[in-house]
Amino acid sequence: MQSSHDVTMGNAPPSIPSATTTGGDTEPKYGGFSRFEIELEFVQSLANPFYLNDLASQKLLSDPAFVAYLAYLQYWTRPPYLKYLTYPGPTLKHLELLQQEKFRQDIISPELAQILAAEGVKASVEWHKDR
To answer: In terms of CB atoms within 10 Å, which of 45, 85, 98, 125 comes out highest?
Structure first.
C-alpha cells in the first residue's frame, strides 16, 4: 500500500465515504484505497509513540513538506472526522505534539517514546477502572 505521506494532498480534507456510495464513485483510489481511508490509517498510526520515533529516525519530522502534511492533518481534530478515530486520545495528543518543532526533535529519543507508551497504558488502565 502506498504510504499516506506519498499521497498528494489537496487544500481540503477528503470527502467522507457514504454508506450509499456505489461502484460509480469518482473519487480516485490509491492502491485501491480512498484518500480518506489512507489519511485515517496514517493519522491513527500517530497514536503509537514508537512509530513517531521511527518517523524521527528516518528524518521525516525535519522535512518541511512532511511537517506541512502534519499541519494539514489537523482537520482530524474536528467533526465530522473526529468520530472516525479509534483511539482519539493518544492520536490527537500526538498530532498536537507533532505541531511543535521541539517535540519533533525530541521524539528521536527511545526513552521519550517509552515514556509516552507508559503514559498511554496508564491512561487506558485508569479509564477502564472508572467504568
So the answer is: 98
- With cell 472516525, the residue in question is 84
CATH class of 25-129: mainly alpha
Contacts of 108 (CB under 8 A, 6+ apart): 53, 56, 57, 61
Mention every residue, 6+ apart, whose C-beta is less than 8 A from residue 95: 43, 46, 70, 73, 74, 76, 77
pLDDT in tens, 66-109: 999 999 999 999 999 999 999 899 999 999 999 999 999 999 99
Alpha helices (runs of H) in the chain, residue ranges in sequence order: 35-45, 49-57, 64-72, 88-97, 101-106, 110-129
List the domain boundaries for the chain: 25-129
Q: Which of 11, 45, 14 is nearest to 29 (CA)?
A: 14
* Predicted structure pTM score: 0.81
